[in-house]
Amino acid sequence: MAQLSWDLQLLNVCAALLLLLAFAMLSQRRIVTLVNLLALQGAVLCVATLLLAWRTGEPHLYFSALLTLGLKVIFLPWLLRRLIRQLEVYWDTEPMMNIAGTMLIGLMIVIFAFGLAQPISALASTATRSSIGVAVAVILLAFLTMITRRKAMSQIVGFLSMENGLFFAAMSATYGMPMVVELGVALDVLVAMLVLGVFFFQIRERFESLDLHHLESLKEEK
Amino acid sequence: MEFAFLLAIPLGGAILLGICGARRFAPDLNAFLSAGTLVAACALTARVIAEGNLLIAREQFFIDPFNVFLVTLTALVGCTTAFFSRPYMRVELERGRLTAGRLRLYHGMYQLFTFTMLLALTTNNMGLLWVAMEAATLSTVLLVTLYRTRASLEAGWKYFILCGVGIAQALFGTILLYFAAEKVLGSAGVTALLWTHLNSVKGQLEPTVLSLAFVFLLVGYGTKVGLAPLHNWLPDAHAEGPTPISAVLSGLLLNVALYAVVRCKVLVEGSLRSSLPSQMLMGFGLLSVGLAALFLWRQRDIKRLFAYSSIEHMGIISFAFGMGGPVANFAALLHMTVHSLTKSAIFFAVGHAAQKTGTQIMDNIRGLLSISPTVGWGLMLGTLAILGLPPFGVFASEFLILTTAMKEQPWAALFLLVALGVAFAAIFGRVQPMVFGEATGKRLPHAPALLPVFTHLLIVLCLGVYIPPYLAHWYREAARLIGGF
After folding, report:
1. Which residue of B95, B131, B200, B321 has the fewest C-beta atoms within 10 A of its own C-beta?
2. Looking at the 3D structure of chain B, how many domains does it have?
3. CA–CA dist A149, A136 (Å, integer)
4. Contact residues, chain A, for B206 at CB < 8 Å
């Protein structure tokens, strides 16, 4: 196998880190740490984007790296931490499944993700095509994080991690989406988080808790 | 020019009402702005009738037969709903279910919601379509939770998370679409997501990638259409939000999401040259019809009842688009139009009925005819129309869908007939005592705003008897565009 250039190797390291962080999030129950992991994932994503921008010389990738830095590394984690402090939700309750079991499912998901990404990677002409599988795995692991959690806050972190995965997928497969779309997506994520902030306070005001147990009364009448 | 107004009025209106939406005149201003949007939409329609398809602003927006009537429909229902909500929200305010501050939120978001839907319908860029769909969810989340009751917060959370996850799938689908398109159209990036460009090269797009993309796009946008088994958010959001919002969610948002699915289907089918997308649409459609028909029997809340009816109708439309071919597509487009008009009319009537009796539980609403004959008749006629009784338009479209299905998918036709029968019995059995039974409520001082109800029903009636030639022409053109196997 031919020697990979150093920037490509670094990109692969970034991909590996993203996957590792997705697993770390899957097992973490302390919500502040979860947010820190999310910020770290954002930072790795930002580095990967910068590397790719440098490699390909695409100007819009620099811009989206900047966007990632501002939004996902600085602003959103700050917002989430603030919400955590104000709402005093520090720990998630016992997850629906034990951690070992979740991890095992996570492993299977990764294998499945690589299988799913196989046809796409085979067709891609980008230098980063090997990491498409990682991106799909991050998306699915984030999804798993969401469905195994009970606190609204951890679900949101899962949601944002999924968005990171999507962003990484777009980057590895096509060197990023067109600028206008990327801006629109970033705007949507930002607005979603602001709406969510308002929403959390509404839930809090009504239930005195952010545990989603309270939000399970609307079931079909048997 | 007309087009600029079409988007600028609701966007500007959102800002304006965000500032002064709590004032006394805000409901009137909201209605006035929506009427302005409708005028712009009509002007645009007139121009399309005169000049044919339009590409606007360096191909970023386009109007073709498939979206022109949806734009007008969206503006129309948006306008009548604003007129309906004028007295409705005032009563809610007087009763103390809302504060003036929340009314400001309501008015601002209402205009923003209209804007996002019109943007989703007219944009040529598949990426922007995604952005607009997500923005439509976000602008309605806080409207669903407007009353801040426990149930409404729960409904809002469900809506946010389920549609958020769903729409994330659609984003992945869009990325895959871009990935395939970039190979053919080059990585200039600007044109590779434009639908018109994609449509012209759809035969060269990589089939494996596109079939994968379609799965994600269908699941993603399908969540917003409310296709079973992704429909969980829909009844809750409809039942717990304020009634004008139920009307626009059912009448407009579901249509716009389905529009996105069909746009994707056209591309994917052109690339795959197989019936896989059609079969998936038919499968989801039939499942939705069947499930909704069963769940209709269990409902006690009137808004939930009609929310399930929306799932059922979205299922029918998806099934018809899945069958494809000129007749079924034509019928599906007609059904989209008449369902949207009828369902919003029903929600208006239901809103008044619930306001008069102070409850949404069907067992506690009785004898509407003696409390308020117009509301009673509005609800009854709307129900008959949505159940597909002639001479209303729903009958015409359902008849076309069923006869086509008998020829092409006889088993499915049988299934549909049974499900429609079951749904008929469920809904009619519930609504009949509500309208004709012994009265429980008392007369209220304010007069209901029933003009929107009867306007909608009149249009549906007209469409059942006579379809204007240009509308029929658009339907046929769009049906040809959608094609199918």
Report:
1. B95
2. 1
3. 20
4. 123
